[in-house]
Amino acid sequence: MVGILKRLFTHLFTADARGRFPPATMERIAAAIDIGETCHSGELCFAVETSLHWRDVLRGMPARARAEDAFARLRVWDTAANNGVLIYLLLAEKRIEIVADRGLAPFVSAEQWRGVCVLMEERLRAGEFADGVVAGIEAAGDLLAVHFPQEPGMPDEDELPDQPVFL
């Protein structure tokens, strides 16, 4: 019971994500996505959510379920090669979840994605929000570049927007 109350308190009193991610930071994240996508044909999206609704906290909704919901709502799955990736941050818990489309499953393991999450979560706990997100985008981009490299002479078609999203 103490754990659920602590989680509820954290979600109820987490300051709005826009304070940690002002417009300049969001532009820096968008630029990192744009630069990364010149090296691979995958599509990266970043979404940040301040906290869960108190009912979702009491129901025990995990960050992973919210990330999967955001993956669908943002249509990250809607790419020709099924190689879209959502990096989701639940700010209240400083929890990162990565949801990758089915085209990546044979190539990038859950452990590799978890390594990217851990890298980001460590930076977030240190208060390095912008640097942590950019480092995660670069690490995810490196994984995509190995398996879905951008072919020389082929145009970089943006199938999904590079601009980060507040949920």
Question: Judging from the principal axes of the Cα atoms, what is the shape?
Answer: globular
CATH level 1 class label? Alpha Beta
The value of Rg in angstroms is 16 Å
Could you tell me the CATH topology label.
Diaminopimelate Epimerase, Chain A, domain 1
How much is the average pLDDT?
A: 94
Encode the helix/strand succession as letters. HHHEHHEEHHE
DSSP, total strands: 4
Residues in β-strands, percent? 5-15%
**Main sheet specs:** 4 strands, mixed
Largest sheet strand order: 3-2-1-4
Please tell me the CATH architecture by its name. Answer: Roll
Low-confidence stretches: none
Number of helices: 7
How many structural domains?
Answer: 1
Share of helix among residues? 40-55%
Which structural class is indicated by helix and strand composition? alpha/beta
Separation of the first and last Cα atoms:
28 Å
What is the topological layout?
Elements (H helix, E strand, L loop, with lengths): L1 H11 L4 H4 L2 H14 L6 E7 L4 H5 L4 H11 L10 E7 L4 E6 L9 H16 L3 H19 L17 E2 L1
Parallel strand pairs: 1-2, 1-4
Antiparallel strand pairs: 2-3
Protein name: TPM domain-containing protein
InterPro entries: TPM_dom
Pfam family, one: TPM_phosphatase
Task: Give an account of the 3D structure.
- By secondary structure, the chain is an alpha/beta fold.
- It has a single domain, classed as Diaminopimelate Epimerase, Chain A, domain 1.
- The chain is built from 7 helices and 4 strands; from the N terminus they run H-H-H-E-H-H-E-E-H-H-E.
- The protein has helices at residues 2-12, 17-20, 23-36, 54-58, 63-73, 110-125, 129-147, and strands at residues 43-49, 84-90, 95-100, 165-166.
- The protein has a 4-stranded mixed sheet, sandwiched between helices.
- Strand 2 (84-90) and strand 3 (95-100) form a beta hairpin.
- Helix 3 (23-36) runs parallel beside helix 7 and helix 6 (110-125) packs antiparallel against helix 7.
- The protein is globular, with a radius of gyration of 16 Å.
- The two termini are 28 Å apart.
